[in-house]
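[job 4471] stage=fold_predict status=RUNNING
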Amino acid sequence: MRWLPVLYVAAVLVIEPLTPVEWPVSFLLVALPLVAAFAHGLMAVAGITVFSVGFEGVLAGTPCCAGRSVGYLWDRNYVAAYCCTVLVGALAAILAAHRTRRERTLATVRFVADIAQRVLLSPIPHRVGTIELESLYLSAAAEAHIGGDLYEAVPTRHGVRLLIGDVRGKGLLAVETAAALVGAFREAAHDERDLPALAGRVETSMNRRAAQLPGSEIGERFVTAVFAEIIGEARVLRIVNCGHPPPLLLRSGQVWELDATRPAPPLNLGVLVGEPYHVDEHTFLVGDQLLLYTDGVTEARDPGGSFYPFVERVRSWGPLPPRELLDRLHADLLAYSRGRLHDDTAALLACLLPDAGPTGPGPVPPLRRRTGEEHRG
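[job 4471] inference complete, writing C-alpha cells
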C-alpha cells in the first residue's frame, strides 16, 4: 500500500505517450493524493498533493515530454484540474489524519487486549512434576485476542487441577465472566480437598457475581466447564463435567470420549436444579493424554455447513506428542473451515510422562470409573 502512489504515477507515465495529445491523461493525477491517503500520513499526503499539481503542469505544458505547447499550461481545463487536485488533496489529508488516529487507537486496544489475555489466560507451565501441559487458543474475531473461552492449570498438593470452560455469549461481558471464573478457580484449587467442593466453590463465586447484574443478564451468565484432577503417582484421573463437551482420553493411538455418568448443569444454573456434583474416575497411565476442548472445535464448519469430525480426525492422526497434536489440530481446524471460525476455540492437553512409573497394560479403554464425592456449593 505504501508503494501504491508510485505505481499509480508509473501507470500514468505509461499511458501518457500512448494517447493522443488531445487526451489529457494528466487529469488522472487528481486522484493521486487520495491514493496516498490509504497508507501515508498527513504531511506525506500534503507533499504528494504539491507534487501532483506540479506534475500536472509538466504534462500539460512541456513540448519535450507531452508534445504540447507551453500555452496549455494555463488552459482553463488544466487550471480546473489544478484546483480539483488541491481540493482532493485537502480531503485526502483529512482522511489520512483520521486513519492515522484510528490506527493508533487500534494499536492501543490491541495492547490492552494483550495485557488482558496475559491476565485471563496466563501461560500455563509446560511441565508440572510428571505432567506435561500444552494449550491452544483461537479467537473467532480477527482482531481479538481473547473471548469467552478459558482454560487454566494449577499444580496443588491434591494433584494437577485443570479447568476448561465456555462462557455463554460474546464480547466484554463474556470476557468479564471468564476472568471471574478463572480467578475463583485459581484461588479455590489450592484449598478445596476434592473436585466437587472445588466446583461448588467456583459456582458460589459465580452466583455472587451474577446477582450483581441487572435484570435478565443474571440468567444469561452461565458457563459450561470441565474440572479435572490428575494424580500422576497414583495414575488417577478425576473429572467433574458441568454441561461441557466430554474430554478425550488418548492412549497408544486409541481415543475415547469420557462421557460423564451424570453431568452437572452449567455453572450458575446449578441452583435451579439442586443436584450434587458427581466425579468420574479413570485410570491415567504413563503416556496417556487428556484433551480438554470447547465447542468451538466440534462446531467448526466447512463451506458446505458440515461440522468438524473431531474425534475421527484425532483417531486418524495416531499417537502424537502433545505440542505436535495441538499444532495439528490448529492447522486442521483452519483448513477445514477455510480460516472462518465462527466461535472461539480453546484446548488444553495433559500428558503423563514416562518417568511417572510403569506404563500399564497397553491400549485398553479406561479401566476404572467411579461416581461419588457428591457436593453442591
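[job 4471] summary: The chain is about 40% helix and 20% strand.
[job 4471] exit 0
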